[in-house]
User: Fold these one by one.
Assistant:
Number 1:
Amino acid sequence: MDIRDSLGILARDAQYDLSCACGTKNPAEHRIKKGSDSWLYPVTVAEGGSGIMLKTLLSNSCSNDCLYCPLRETQDTRRTSVSPDDLARFFIDMVSHRKLIGIFLSSGVIGTADFAMDRLIATGEILRNRYRYRGYIHTKIIPGASPEAIRSAIKYSSAVSLNIETPGEHHFSKLSASKRYTEDIIGSLRLISDLTGSGGPFSRVHTTSQFIVGASDESDREILSYTKRMYDNLHFDRLYFSAYQGGLGDPSIPGEVRYRSALEREFTLSYQEASPTLMREHRLYQADFLFRQYGFTFDDLSFTSSGALDLSRDPKQVWADRNPQFFPVSVKKASPRELMRVPGIGPVTARRIVSLRKESPLSDITQLPLTRSAYQKAAHYLSMY
């Protein structure tokens, strides 16, 4: 098959690796399922700004056994590959005809992790050296890759990622016997952190990772505990959460049996149109945003006895309801950080309120730069004194 036919298959399969951020209102960060150019992917890059990226696999062949993955070795699917030369040439031709912010490079594990990494690295090297491409390249690090391969991949990349998949070896071992959690996942994440952190040789490179939510029997508390530590200790720029939707029909996958039942037992859902796992993904993104933008700590979050977030309320609203002593917050005196604890008020609005009160006295809550829905959420928690 020609390059476009192969990329049609590979780009479709690349969508199993969804790095959407559906907890935000930015449509550029949301997953899409259709489109005539199926290999184009709307994305917001780590350093800000959004656009269209070519996202594809170099190969959908894989020797790994990850039970949640439709491309694992034992699955019956149409396999294909493209060469680094062909993919680089196709991308450069594409860039010349339409505006793209970059390319997302990933691959199944062809034989060994380092063999797959060699092909990813070669693609980046061809783009940088032969075509003098200076745009955005995001490279997915293959679990089990050698330190040398990881360093080479980072050299040609604007951003790199390695999916942590689950919070801990206990959960990971239920999904894969071919990958070693401590060495292949955690060890590689630490190396990426060392190479890209402040003072490292590649500090300009952004780092991301992702959890598969609901494939194993992990709790929200465990996911968010790992999330906070990855921000604080490994200094990753962004973490993503991808809801496992089931449907592979394998009863050996913990999430295949469990992922709906546990949540449906715990909550009476008011979101009947959304699957519990998608709503769970949404709540995890909201909690993640509280870590990154609102100054919340892990201890600020509330969980049920089984470690789940409340599906019926966003975690910021839960905190407000559990901490009535914090309110009302003074519009005239509160710091931006205090204002951001108010439901309906985010970082931008908090800064605008502080700016407005410096320009002229605020005497009524209706003077605040709030939408109708934000006003309805915030009014009960604010004071004009």
Note: Residues 1 and 80 are 9 Å apart (CA to CA).
Number 2:
Amino acid sequence: MVFTTHVFLFYFLPLVLLAYYALPFRARTALIAVSSYVFYGWANPIWAVIMFFGCSVDYLCGLALVRMARLPDGPDGLPPVLGPQVPRTRAMRAVLTVSIVTNLGLLAAFKYTGFVAENVNALGQALGLGERLVPVMHVVLPVGISFYTFKAMSYVIDVYRGEARPMRRFTDYMCFEAFFPDLVAGPIIRYAAMEEQMRLRAHTVEKFARGVAFFAFGMAKKILVANPMGHIADTAFAAGPLHWYDAWFGLFGYAFQIYFDFSGYSDMAVGLALMMGFVLIQNFDSPYKADSITDFWRRWHISLSTWLRDYLYIPLGGNRKGPARTYVNLMVVMLLGGLWHGASWNFVLWGAIHGGMLAFERAQGRTGFYRRLPRGARVATTFLIVCLSWVFFRAKTLPAAMTYFASMFGVSGAGAAAHAIAGPLYTTYHASMLGLAALIVWGLPNTWAFTARLSVPRAVGGLALLAASILLMWTQTTNPFLYFQF
């Protein structure tokens, strides 16, 4: 199910909210759990079965860790937290390993088996060993599996580290892992941040109103801005060799599409959670205003960058083992972050660009030439680097990415056929929307800042944008979010 459909807006969401506020507090988590499985299994019930299997393993592993510690329940009757006084035994490490292997195994089975098989066959062919050493299986990727896998892994890891207590009721854990607002495209909610909210959270008119505003602005980002930018990007990237100015126009369209699409989803997720009393983290903080790639990753997909930092970069040693090891750790984290997005060499190269820039900026330090540039120049340079990396993110294959780069730098040999792209690419509507997208990105506050003080004019404006988005939604055949594919 997708947020931007009439089924969700006019049936699913009203029914869930009515039932939620009609039930006693203790029953609400069970309602969210059941509703979330309906939401996720709407398109393909098998996806819900797969998620339920992983959910069951993680829940049992969390309880097993506490039982192995042999600690009594707390005075409030809650399961205990594994403090530093509890030795982590070999059996407890085995339980942690079971959870991690199960989650990564499911992710690898659905997302990476085909990629690995194709590369093994390509290598075998290059070595003269045959064209098909292993069979290539193409399976349907469960929507959002990368997101809920990382969320699930944080549960057992946080319990093992003693950063949170496990959940005793299975429905509570189902509610956490399958929470429908953030299930398929984030933010990646950490268990430690949600554990207390599962037991104690406030429901206020102010919180609900801000949730509606978040949802309204997020939907406007998706329908009114991201989709027109998607038309520009899709037209350009599907056209083959282009004139350089057409290629750059299409790339800027994609840069705005992916930002408004993904941040729009995150805003809608935050809004839906607020309507039910949950406070999620901010996932975007005006990333195109960043003045370095390091700053960009403090602002873009914050929940992923902090997850990679806490569960991968720091365990690898972080910056504690010297400069050379720090640079290696940064590259490893970003290469794996690229693979997290997709099983393709394009994503590996995208991660390599960002990892290389993070290492370069750390090597430059605070007194390097780059840091001495005016802020406007640093912002423009950062945006340019991010856009160049987006080519690998958007192009379907590595040769297609190379062709697009050739177009951007005027060496594609674009002929008369390239002129035919001008009509669908430069319509008045789409060119105007690209200008509006740039104005919003660099001239207006982001949704978090804009809704921090929700005045009547802002609330009315949000409702007007929501109404316009719903009306326009009816004219569009499909509204998939870009990050559903991950």
Note: The chain has a mean pLDDT of 89.
